[in-house]
Amino acid sequence: MKILEFLSDPIIGIENWIVQLLENWGVATEWQTFIVYLIGAAILGTGALLITLILIWAERKIIGRLQDRLGPNRIGPWGIFQPVADMLKIFTKEHIIPDGVDPIPYHLAPIISVASVLLLWAVVPFSDSVRGSNLNVALLFILGVGGLGELGVILAGWGSNNKYSMLAAFRASAQMISYEIPMAIVLLATVILSGSMSLGDIVKSQNIAYIFFLPLGAFIFFVASIAENGRAPFDLAEAESELVAGFNMEYSGLKFGMFYVADFLRAFTSAVIFSSIFLGGWRGPGAEQIPILGFVYLLIKSVIVWFLGVWIRGSMPRYRVDQMMAITWKFLTPLALALFIVVAFVTKLIENTNQWLQVLILLVINVALFVAGFAIVKKFRKEKERIVVSTKKRVLAQPTNPFSQSETGG
Fold first, then answer.
1. Do 138 and 197 touch, CB atoms closer than 8 A?
2. pLDDT, tens digit (0-9, with 9 covering 90-100), for 88-103
3. Which region holds residue 404: left if phi is over 0, alpha if psi is between -120 and 50, else beta?
4. Angle 294-296-299 from CA coordinates, rounded to 5°
């Protein structure tokens, strides 16, 4: 029986074994808790960084297939060891520091970029019994750590003492801040449904996944997370024809590799958070009885969401900077505000009704809001096109005599 209990929840089994071992060594209770949390944080951080190697290989192979090319296929079977070769190259590559950089922000920026991603894993519930920390303000923590990522971008551009890097940092930070607004509004709607800001409580409250209550909110959150991560089609910070290579262009070696790791890991981390908020996280058949199943369910859901993001990245062209900002300020943010107001009002009216009836009512409201928002955007776009066409006609109708009256002496 003990073996079956261990296999059903091995992480808790290992934790109990470590605690028992520390007790036998006479370690005080407070130090036992500290050591267990320290070991857990080290394993979680190391595991997340090792997952990045798999993510890099998988993403390059998937995009290679989407774009009708091979992707990595030389080092190891199916090119599976290519990320290891890249890692070794980055570790051994010469680290060049340009003259005139501001050393403190320049060196801090890559560390902050990686740390801002790893910190998000601290509040993710991996199963009914395994989580880093059950914060009662986990959603605020997620938004705050997102701000820490923006700080890393700004420090990289500013510390590099390069005008192009600084311009790219301004653009990237403006993009991240702008898309955090609709994301935060949608998170408020999930707080109304769950009655809590704890990620663990939000997962437990999803007898029916919130994506059925808030499909429009899930869409807004998904698009905003892609844009906040700076991935295609929102990768304006890396518009080579305009800004060379973005805010990290003055970095080389391991420091550049840290930005690279943060980019790939942030994409999967966003998928994990999306799965926890809208897809029920670890919840699934038998997950409460066998906690290890909860981890498997969370992994499957997160991989599906991550794959959708990779699919979009490999299929869509890059937006212009004005289009990118217009999407959030003219479409996503007003739509998120309307959704939040309507959900807050309607959920109060139907809070005592059957849950499936609530799903149906909110689903209809979400679809109606999306159709109305799309119709409004389409109307404004047609009006803008009409103005552009009329302006062109007016310009073409003007006389084209190259000589003015003063030049002809008239």
1. yes
2. 888 888 888 888 899 9
3. beta
4. 110
Q: What is the pLDDT of residues 337-395, one digit of tens each?
A: 999 999 999 988 888 888 888 889 999 999 999 998 888 888 877 777 777 778 877 77
Distance, in Å, from the CA atom of 54 to the CA atom of 79, rounded to the nearest integer, reads 11
Residue whose token pair is 């997160």: 302
The C-alpha angle 112, 116, 118, rounded to 5 degrees, equals: 115
Return d(Cα 174, Cα 137) in angstroms, integer.
25
Residue range 48-76, pLDDT digits in tens: 888 998 999 999 999 999 988 888 888 88
User: For residue 208, which phi and psi values (nearest 5 degrees)?
Assistant: -120, 130
Task: Provide the token pair at 125.
Answer: 């519930």
